[in-house]
Write a structure and sequence with these properties.
Length: 73
């Protein structure tokens, strides 16, 4: 978990941004805002790997979709 020290989201004032309540409407806009943070994150690949390895079922990890079947895309 050392990679989290370098996470672009580590100092965010809105951690809920990465856990949208839906993928539609305001939730879709929230996902896009979270993904914008992930795009400038130096540990995005490791983050996505960790989410896949630990079977995360919700949230934006590594800038990929919150849908588990989309991890790694
Ligand atoms: S890829 Fe996104 S969710 Fe993962 S550590 Fe970086 S900013 Fe946070």
């Amino acid at each position: 978990m050392d990679w989290q020290r370098d996470a672009a989201c580590a100092d965010t004032d809105d951690p809920d941004l990465f856990f949208p309540i839906s993928l539609n409407g305001p939730g879709a806009r929230q996902v896009e805002r979270a993904r914008a943070v992930c795009r400038r994150c130096p540990v995005a690949v490791r983050c996505a790997e960790w989410a896949r390895e630990t079977h995360q079922r919700s949230g934006v990890w590594g800038g990929v979709s919150v849908e588990p079947e989309n991890y790694g895309r």
